[in-house]
Amino acid sequence: MKAKQTLRTFLLLTFAEGVLTLILLLTIPGDPKNAWILGLSRFRVLMLAAGMFVVGTTGLFVRRTVNDRTRLTHLQEKVSSALSWDGHVTTTLTLALAGLIAGSYFFYITFTSTDQFLLGFFRRLTPWVFWVTAICAQTLVLLIQALRQGSRSYFRAHWLALFTLLVVLITGVAIHTSLWELRPEDWDVRHIFNQDNKFELTQQDIFAVYTEGDRLSRGINPYARVLEQGGDMRWNLTFPAYLPVMYSLSALIEGIGVTDFLDYLSVLRWFYLAANLGIAYLLFYVPYHRYNALLFGAFSALFWLMNRWVVHITMIYHFDFLALLPFLISLALWPRHRRLSLLLFGLSLAVKHMAIFMAPVYLVWIARTTEKPSLRRLVEGALWMGAVPLLVALPFMVWNLEGFFKSLLISLTRVAESHFGVPDFATVFTLSGASAKLPMFGLFLLIYGLAWRSRLRPFAAGLFVMAVFLDYNAVLFRQYMVWIVPLIPLAAAGTLAPLIARQTPDQPPREENNAL
After folding, report:
1. Which terminus of the chain has a smaller tally of CB atoms within 10 A, N or C?
2. Distances in whole angstroms, Cα of residue 130 to Cα of each of 4, 19, 53, 105, 106
3. Is the dihedral of CA 224, 229, 231, 236 positive or negative?
4. CB of 328 closer than 8 Å to CB of 461
5. Are 100 and 143 in contact (CB under 8 A)?
6. Which SS3 state, helix, strand or coil, does residue 37 take?
C-alpha cells in the first residue's frame, strides 16, 4: 500500500506541476512586434496549445489512474517489474540525475546571465524546463524509495560502475564543451589540417540546413530548388538531400527568434552534446549490464568520446549524432522490443538516411521470427519502420512531390566525391550506371544472406552494413566515418563476451547463440 501511495503522490505532483507550467506560460510577457491574436505571437499560441494538450492529457491519465485501484496496482506492478533488472535502474538513475543537473544549470544561467538574447530566449523555455526538472527530481526520490529494501545490494554491486560512468560522462562534457569555443588557429599551429578552410562553418552541411530552415520558416519549400535550378542529378549544389526533420527543426528554432547563425549553433550544440553522451552511455551500458565487463564498457565509452572523427564532427557541427543515437538504440532493443526498435530505426532515417541499407536486415529478421515467413508480419514491420519518415515527409510530398523525390535521389545519382581523395572500386575501374553499384549491392546481398541464416547479431550486422557503405559508396565524406566508430566495440562486445565477461555468481553474462 505504501508503494501505491508513493506512486499516487508522484502522479498527483506531476499533474500539479503541469498546471503550474501552464500558468507560467500564460504569464510570460508577449512581444508586441510579433502580436498575432490577443497580443500573442503565432509561436506563443502554438506553445500554449501544446501546453494545454500535454497538461490535459496528463490530467486525464492521472485522474483515471489514482481513482482506480486496479489501474494503480497494475501500474505499480509495471514499475516494479521494470526496476527488477539492475540495467533499468542504472538507466533511470542516469537519466533522472542528468535531467536534474541540466535543468538546474539552465536555471542558474537564466537567473544569473545579463545577455538580453539569452534572457529573452530562455525565459520562454523556463516553464517547460521547470516541469521536466521537477519530474526528474521526483523520479530520483521514487527510485530511492522503490529500492529502499534492496538499495544497499544494488549500490554495493554497482558502486564502482556508477562511479566510472560518472567520470566518463563528466569527461565527455568537459571534452565536447571545450570544443565549442576552440578555433583552428588555437591547435593547428602548423596550418596543416585547416587547408582550404575545411573548418569554415559556412562551408558545412549545417549551414545549408540552417539556410533551408530559414526558407521554410518563410513559407518556401526547400525541395523545390532542385527543379528551379535545372534539376541536374549529378551534382549536389547544396540541395536538401535529407528528409525534412532537420529543416523543420531549424525552422522551429529560427521561428522562436534564433535568427543568427552562431546563435543557432549555440542551440543545436546542446542537442549534439546530449546525443554524444547518450551514445557514450550505451557503449558503457551494453558491455557492463549485458556481459558484466566493466573495463570494456569504460574503454568503449572513452573510445567514442575521444575518437578523432567524433572530435572533428563536433567541431564542424554535423548532425550525424542525432541520427546515430536512435540507430544504435534500435539495434540494442532488437529483438526484445521489436516495434520500438523499428520506430527508432525509422527516426534515424528521418533525421539522416545513412543506415537505409539496414532496412532489409530488419525485414529478414522479421521474416525469420517464425518458421514460415508471413507477408502480414513483413508489411506490419515495414509500416512500423516507415511510420516516422512517412509522417514527417508527407506534408512535403503533398507540397511538391517531384522536387521532394528528386532531391532525395541525388544521393544515388551524384558523381563520385571524397574528402580524402580516395576513389572507390567502381571509379578506379571506370564502372558507370548500374554496374557501378554492383560491388556494393553484391556485398549487401551477402550480408542479408548471413542475416537470413541467423549468423549475425544486431551490432555485427550494423557494423558490416556501414563498413560496406563506407568502403564501396561512390561518395565518402568525413562525417560518414563517425557511423562506424561505436559499432566496432559494440559488435566486439557480443563476439568476445566469453573473453571479456567477468562471471560472478550473482550476475553471469547473458547467454547468446554462436552467431557473429
Report:
1. N
2. 25, 12, 17, 11, 9
3. negative
4. no
5. no
6. strand
Respond yes or no on whether the N-terminal peptide bond of residue 335 is cis (omega within 30° of 0).
yes
pLDDT band at 274 (very low <50, low <70, confident <90, very high): very high
Residue 86 pLDDT greater than 50, yes or no: yes
Q: Quick one: which of 319, 357, 320, 362 has its CA closest to 341? A: 362
> Could you give the CA distance from residue 490 to residue 463 in angstroms, rounded to a whole number?
9
Helix pair 487-495, 320-333: axis angle to 10 deg: 20
pLDDT at 384 over 50: yes
Question: Which of 353, 472, 347 is CA-nearest to residue 416?
Answer: 472
Alpha helices in 35-115 (DSSP H): 42-66, 69-82, 86-112
Nearest Cα neighbor of 226 from 352, 477, 396, 388 is 396
User: How far is residue 194's CA from residue 495's CA, in Å, rounded to a whole number?
Assistant: 39
Average pLDDT of the chain to the nearest whole number: 86
pLDDT tens per residue across span 343-382: 999 999 999 999 999 999 999 999 987 767 778 889 999 9
